[in-house]
Amino acid sequence: MATITELKARVADLERQLADALQTKSAPNRGKITQMSAEVVDSNPYSRLMALKRMGIVENYERIRDFTVAVVGVGGVGSVTAEMLTRCGIGKLLLFDYDKVELANMNRLFYQPHQAGMSKVEAAERTLKEINPDVEFEVYNYNITTTENFDHFQGRIKQGGIGGDKPVDLVLSCVDNFEARMAINMACNECDQKWFESGVSENAVTGHIQFLIPGETACFACAPPLVVASKIDEKTLKRDGVCAASLPTTMGVVAGFLVQNVLKYLLQFGDVSYYLGYNAMLDFFPRMILKPNPQCDDSYCKKRQTEFQAREATRPKVQVEITEAEVVHEDNEWAIEIVSETTADELAAAEGDQPELTKGVRVAYTTPAPTQGGDQDATVQDSGQSLDDLMKQMQGL
Amino acid sequence: MATITELKARVADLERQLADALQTKSAPNRGKITQMSAEVVDSNPYSRLMALKRMGIVENYERIRDFTVAVVGVGGVGSVTAEMLTRCGIGKLLLFDYDKVELANMNRLFYQPHQAGMSKVEAAERTLKEINPDVEFEVYNYNITTTENFDHFQGRIKQGGIGGDKPVDLVLSCVDNFEARMAINMACNECDQKWFESGVSENAVTGHIQFLIPGETACFACAPPLVVASKIDEKTLKRDGVCAASLPTTMGVVAGFLVQNVLKYLLQFGDVSYYLGYNAMLDFFPRMILKPNPQCDDSYCKKRQTEFQAREATRPKVQVEITEAEVVHEDNEWAIEIVSETTADELAAAEGDQPELTKGVRVAYTTPAPTQGGDQDATVQDSGQSLDDLMKQMQGL
C-alpha cells in the first residue's frame, strides 16, 4: 500500500504534469508587442524580420503593421498564406471560408488532426492567434458566392482596413472553384481593389499566382487564366467518389510565391510578378503579364480600364511624348502581352497531354457548362475567337 | 494534515484532469493506418495523395512507406521539410539538430511560441507524431560535427533504414553553416549516400537546393556552391548583436522545392533537378548540373568518381558504341557542365552587387578563413584556378 509520502510525491508530480499540459495547450504564450524591435535577442519574434532593413532589402519593415489583407479560402494554399502573413507580423487578416477541417486535409500543411470537425476559419484563427497575438483577426464562416454573403464580403473589402473605415490593402484568392474566383473578381472590379489569384491544378503538380489590378491588367473575366495545368473539369471532381490530388509541396510553394509577392508589393522591394507559374514535374516557372480585354464582359472592368487609360494619358512621361502610339495593342483584340523570361522551347518542353491547345499553355480552370454559368462562359465565346486562336496568338507574340 | 483517502482522491482527480488536458493536446487523434487506401472519404488522410495514381502522376504511391529520410537541421527549412514528408506519409524520418526553439524562430513556419525552450528535435517529433502517427521517428539532439557524434551520425546513415539494417534512402541537409555541410558531405561520400543540399541566403531573399550523387555530380567539396546569393561571411553574422534575416516565404519555397524533388526521386515521376535556385526579388529560378571535380580533395569523392566511371563504361549504351569519347570532359579540369534553361541574359539580370564575380553567379557560402579550415579552403586554391576563372569558364559553356 502507498505511504503518505509516496502519495504526496505522486500529487506533486501530477500537478507539475498538469500545469505543463495546460500551459502548452492554450495559455497566451507572450504578451502583445507594441513596437517592433530590431534587437537581436532570442525572445524577440521580430528580430529576423527587422534584419531585412539592416540587410538592405526592406526600407521600413515596421510598416507591415499598417496593412490589412483578406484571404478568401483557407485550405491548402490559404491557410499557409495566412500563417506566413501572421508570422511576418501583418497588421490585420480577414479570413473567409465555409468548410470544415477533415482528416482528408492532413496531406497539406497547417491543420492538425485534433481540429477535425471545426470550421476552418475558427481553427485557423485559434492557431494563428497563438502564433502571433499582435495580429488582428476578422473571420467569416460563410460562402461568399450567395447574394447576401457577397454583399457582406464586398462591404468588408471596402471597410475592413485597420481602423474600420478604409478598404483592405489586398485580397488574396485561395479558393478552389471557378464561381468563387468570379465572385472575387466581380467584387474587386467594382471596389477598384487590387488582388492576387492563386491556384493549384487537380493533379497537384502545377500551380500559379497572378496579380490583378483593375483596369491595368487582365481581370479574371478578361481571358481564361493561362497556366501549365491539367484540364480536368473541376465540376466532375467531387462526384462519384473521385477526388482531386493534392500535395503539401506544391501548395506550400504556391503560398510562398503568393506571400513573397504580397510582401514585395506592400513593402516595396524587388519586382512583383504579374503571373508566375510553377510546373513541379520540370521545375519550370513561366512568367508573363496579361493586359485587360477591352471587350471584357465585366462592366466595372471596362470602367477601370477607361480610368486607367485617362490616368496614364495625363501622367508625365519621362523622355517620351504622349502620342497616339501610347494606346497599346490597338489591333490586338485581346491585348495580351507576354513579358516572359521563358523561351518558346521551354514552353514547348512544358507541354503535356492536351493536343487541342497550343503547346506549353493550358487552361487552369474549365469554365462551367453553359447551363450552369452561361454568362461567364460567354466571356470567351462572345469574343468571336476560339481559345485555340488565342493561344496561337499568344505564342506568336 | 491530509489523510491517505484525501490524497488518493486528489491523485484520482489530477489523473483525470491530466488525461483530459493531454487528450486535447497530444493523445493520438487517430489510430495507425496499416494500409494506405484511396477511398474518398473525409476521414481518410491519404485520399488526396493516393489520387496521384488515378491522376497518372505516380505509379505506386504506397511505396512512400518503404522509404527512410534523414533530415539534418530542423530549423526554418528542415522543420517544414520534415512536416511535408510526414504529411505525405513517409515511412521513417531521422531528425538531427542541437538547437532549442526560441521566440526569435517564430518568423518562420512550424514551431509555436509554447515550444520555446524545448529542443527542436523533441518539439518537432511531438508535433509530427500528432500530425501522422504512421511515421516512424528517430531523433538526435546533438551536433553532428563533433568526432563522436559524427561517427554515430554516419552509423545511422548506414543502418537507419526501415528494419534497422540498411541505409537510409536520402539525407537532406537543412543546416545553416559550412562546417555542418562539410560533415554531411564527408559522411555521404564515404557511405556512397545520395543527398540533397539546401540553403537560404543571409538576406533571406535567395535560396537553392542541390542533388548530390557521389561520383556522379559535384560533391560539396568539389566546387564552391554556386547560387545567386549574398556573400556575407556567416561567421560574422551571429556576433555583435548582428543577425541574419529570414522569411517564412523563402524558407517555405525552398522546403517545397526540396521535398518535391525528394518525392520525384523516390516515387519516380517528373524530372529531378540537380540544382534549382530561387531569387525572390526577381522570381528567377536558375537550374544546372555540376559534374564532379577529378581533383577533389575528398578522397572518397574521387573513389566514387572512379566507381561511377567504371559502371558507366560497362553499362550497355543504346545505339552508342563505347569509345574513348565516353570519358567526359577530359580537358575541362573542373568538368562543370551547365544544363540550364536560363539564358545568359537571364543570368545577367539576376546579378547584384558583387563586382568581383562574374555576372549572375555568386557564392552561396564563404569558406572559413584559412586558420579555421585550411584544408577545405584549399579545395579551390589547389586547383590552380581562381574562382573568377571558374565563373568565366562556366558562363562560356
Automatic annotation (TrEMBL), chains A, B:
Residues 366-397 are annotated as: Disordered. Keywords: ATP-binding, Metal-binding, Nucleotide-binding, Ubl conjugation pathway, Zinc. Residues 46-296 form the THIF-type NAD/FAD binding fold domain. GO terms for molecular function: ATP binding; metal ion binding; UFM1 activating enzyme activity. The keyword Zinc applies. GO terms for cellular component: cytosol. GO terms for biological process: protein ufmylation. The keyword Metal-binding applies. Residues 368-386 have a biased composition (Polar residues). It comes from the Eukaryota. InterPro entries: D-isomer_DH_CS1, ThiF/MoeB/HesA, ThiF_NAD_FAD-bd, Ubiquitin-activating_enz. Belongs to the ubiquitin-activating E1 family. UBA5 subfamily. PANTHER family: UBIQUITIN-ACTIVATING ENZYME E1, UBIQUITIN-LIKE MODIFIER-ACTIVATING ENZYME 5. This is Ubiquitin-like modifier-activating enzyme 5.
